[in-house]
Design goal:
With about 180 residues, the chain is mainly beta. The chain is built from one helix and twelve strands.
Length: about 180
């Protein structure tokens, strides 16, 4: 398996283009409608999306009044790629108007061994000049490229999202099948 990530600091992971684009959420505590996994707690929301769509970024970079629709992926074959994306909505702002959202990312192979395990990554640590209730693409995401020698079976992706200013943690989990 090859990983390309938005996490420049991770040893096995390389940068993927990212943008802090925004889109209206659904107002019901779901950060992004149709996500692989979504949760909200105390007004803070996070979503995990697994898609095979290589044009996910173009779909994301829509005007704020449009909601991008990602085709969710549940399997990948050797040579195929998946994009594992995370989104947040309504982070608390400090007095200067900045967010402090941090994430942990864990990818587990079918045999239970870890393929990736990163902690305390900056997920959305930035000044916000727009409404925090919009949905923001976080900087934690991975491009997974399946290789023939990768183990077949269920791979699990877990992202724990923490709004450190609000002291709220949201665990997200999804999976995909390597065929």
């Amino acid at each position: 398996m090859k990983f390309l990530s938005m996490l420049a600091a991770a040893a096995l992971l390389l940068p993927l283009p990212a943008a802090a684009q925004m889109v209206q959420g659904d107002g019901q505590g779901t950060a992004l409608p149709g996500a692989s996994a979504s949760q909200s707690t105390e007004g803070f929301a996070a979503s995990l999306v697994i898609t095979a769509d290589p044009e996910w970024q173009q779909k994301w970079e829509t005007p704020p009044d449009g909601i991008p629709r990602f085709e969710l992926a549940t399997e990948v074959k050797p040579g195929g790629s998946l994009y594992i994306l995370s989104f947040v909505s309504n982070p608390m702002l400090d007095p200067a108007g900045s967010t402090q959202v941090r994430c942990d990312l864990r990818i587990t192979r079918p045999d239970g061994s870890l393929s990736g395990d990163e902690h305390d990554l900056p997920c959305l640590v930035t000044p916000l000049e727009s409404d925090p209730k919009l949905v923001y693409l976080s900087s934690v995401g991975v491009k997974f490229t399946a290789e023939a020698e990768d183990p077949k079976g269920t791979w699990t992706v877990a992202i724990t999202v923490r709004d450190t200013l609000r002291n709220v943690t949201i665990p997200l989990q999804s999976s995909f099948e390597m065929r």
